[in-house]
Amino acid sequence: MTNNKTMSERAQRIRSDKAVAHRLKRRRFESLRRTMQTHAAKTAPSAAIDCGWGRLIFAQTFDDAGELVSALREEAPEHRDIAVYVADPHVALAQAPQEIFLDPSHTYRLDLATYRSGRRRPRGFSVRRLSSEADARAVNRIYATRNMVPVRPDFFWSNRDNRAITYLVAEDEVTGEVIGTVTGIDHARAFADPEQGASLWCLAVDPQARHAGIGETLVRRLGEHFKARGAAFMDLSVLHDNAQAIALYEKLGFRRIPAFSIKRKNSINERLFVRPPEAYDTLNPYARLIVDEARRRGVQVEITDAEGGFFRLSSGGRSVHCRESLSDLTSGVALSICDDKSVTRRVAERAGLSVPEQMTAEGDETALTAFLERHGRVVVKPARGEQGRAVAVGLAGMDEVRRAIAGAREVCDRVLIEACFEGEDLRLVVIDFKLVAAAIRRPPHVIGDGRSTVRQLIETLSRRRAAATGGESRIPIDAETERCLKLSGLTLDDVLEDGRDIVVRKAANLHTGGSIYDVTAIVHPRLVDAAIKAARAIDIPVVGIDFMVKSPTEPDYVFIEANERPGLANHEPQPTAERFLDLLFPLSGHRAARTALGKM
Q: What is the pTM of this model?
């Protein structure tokens, strides 16, 4: 009986495997046939739709490859046109091999007839149509953080009633901030597509967003929108090596189809058709941002130590060795001033800046107790160190101060105790003694769902922060994390109730999971003046000045420290890399062009 059952199960598995193989073969054949039919069908001739960042050019509506290439040659400056559904890309490439290239992206398709909506509802955010110019500006801000081509805000607004284009945004329910966006194109309305297709473009999520599932929800809502309109499918294009995005799309039911796209060779697309320098992929995001800007300007790049973020830039007989934003232009004296936080504080104080009271932890319990009683709460940090290691904020008891001192001594023998200034952590990036960017840095916090433990929530947020920052930001689970949880009456193994929001570390450093919010446009002039004064006192050409402030729009502050190697990539969309290259090579890039035109 057992043998018969085993043979029956084996036969059933074989039949099932054959059925799956048949379905996959049929699906590949049907996808290919549909793609070819799309190219054969005649619709609106030479169809293209302006998306603000460039045009989508529907290759199946063109008579021949020559016409398609001619259309691509009409690309506007600072735009990125994409010719999609190119049946014979090799023929088009042969027409203009020096001008166009085959986009290294895969095309994926979601069959809307069989698509089923997800049962998981978004937590902490909602999805709606783009409805204001403020929404448009917020979408551009997210595009900039993702190195996407910006769109004029008035373009979004003027196309809000365009039936061919759909803009969706995700909005944080607490802050009202736009934290994600996606664009949809209705092919039937764009060019009378006989297949009733649609496509998804420009999916982008704010890298500082704290909620899970934003991208998935935006994709689902757009698919539901097109399904309700009667669309047969929704296509999208994704870079071949974007494993995270591909995993999401396949999870949602997208399947790859044999459809191709071509683009023009321009500075925006350069990384897609020009081989990067050796060891480029090993560079961290801070070094890569500067290297990309240098290559865009034609500045020669030599990566000297990728793992450490070292590279040499050369142009016009000038050569500068850099480690991320630290260069030969920063003197050893300036570097040593920033390296020792107590020295930095004294230099800032002599320059007239407001600084917190400070003492050194030298074993004098009486003095330490008196300091704590005088200030109520203190900050403990190593005199030397970076990336927020062993920094403990808001300590109110002697026992936790002692433990923090012991932890800080593992980083540096000398430990500093500072008065704790309640407020927000403000980073001001000063390049060539001018403010380039200002941002509020906030500590990591998680929101309960009623099911997950605090540890699980932290690990999930840490994975998202790492993905958003190229692995540069993670939340350590250590004694400092446990101390912060204890202040909220929690442990790592407690289940956090639905909707409860808790801070899991007091320090707002990005490397330990903090997030950053650009405030360059609203920062108070007195804060800007103080940051520039500090930079001049240290005599450092590139620096990140850290203040504690009540608000970035108010003049009150306390100087915390100066960072000689600020992470410029953290401050996009502000032009940090551009200003850095302007400092190193004043006659390169847009500055040289403006000078030549007499516009400076």
A: 0.74
